[in-house]
Write a structure and sequence with these properties.
- The structure is a single chain.
- The chain folds into two domains: 4-79, Orthogonal Bundle (Rna Polymerase Sigma Factor, Chain: A), CATH 1.10.1740; 85-176, Winged helix-like DNA-binding domain superfamily/Winged helix DNA-binding domain (Arc Repressor Mutant, subunit A, Orthogonal Bundle), CATH 1.10.10.
- By secondary structure, the chain is mainly alpha-helical.
- The radius of gyration is 25 Å and the shape is elongated.
- It contains nine helices and no strands.
- Mean pLDDT is 79; it is low at 178-189.
- The longest helix is centred in the middle third of the chain and has 24 residues, at 56-79.
- It has helices at residues 4-11, 15-26, 29-45, 56-79, 85-93, 104-122, 126-137, 142-149, 153-176.
- 70% of the residues lie in helices and 0% in strands.
- The termini are far apart.
Length: 189
């Protein structure tokens, strides 16, 4: 069990530098406060593991650095658009023209998403492109898709899951860099 008083005595003079360090990394005081709180909780829980081979402040800042990295990875994962199978099929089923009830912003977002997915599909290997087309766009079930491609149903399922995985990977790559229109894509699905 960590010694509460000893931990508090070591923590008190390091709270302000810890807060400044984290705030400098994330650039937002509110996020910094959350990360500092998580850091202090983790430091308290693992205080018994602190061996004193480095200064307490160094140990505390390394925990904070790990917390900032964890938060950034979590935010990146939630920000990145992962297309699962249902999303892909819903997107394919939706018409590219927005309904009259949609605001111009929603229409713009829908058009941008459709364009990104279209560009990502066009960049896929022909085998995967054909699979996405048959399943998501033509709406064929696995049995019909397998028959059309002269492969087994399990092979069709595996190929479809790989195609969606490749599509998701391509979309994640696009999200990491600024979006540039590829111009008019001549090739259609």
């Amino acid at each position: 069990m960590p010694n509460h008083q000893e931990f508090t005595e070591l923590l008190q003079p390091n709270l302000l530098p810890l807060n400044r360090f984290v705030c400098g990394m994330v650039g937002n005081q509110f996020e910094a406060e959350d990360i500092v709180q998580d850091t202090v909780v983790k430091a308290f829980i693992h205080f018994a593991d602190f061996r004193g081979e480095s200064k307490f402040k160094t140990w505390l800042l390394s925990i904070a650095l790990n917390e900032v990295g964890t938060k950034r990875r979590r935010e990146y994962r939630s920000r990145v658009s992962y297309f699962d199978f249902d999303q892909l099929e819903r997107l394919a089923a939706a018409t590219s023209a927005a309904t009259s009830d949609d605001t111009p912003f929603l229409q713009y977002q829908e058009n941008e998403t459709t364009q990104r997915v279209h560009n990502a599909i066009v960049s896929l290997h022909p085998t995967y492109k054909e699979m996405i087309h048959l399943r998501a766009i033509d709406g064929l079930n696995f049995a019909d898709t397998a028959r059309k491609l002269s492969i087994s149903v399990p092979a069709a399922k595996a190929r479809y899951y790989r195609a969606v995985d490749r599509l998701s990977h391509t979309l994640r790559r696009q999200t990491r860099r600024p979006f540039h229109r590829a111009g008019n894509v001549e090739q259609q699905f």
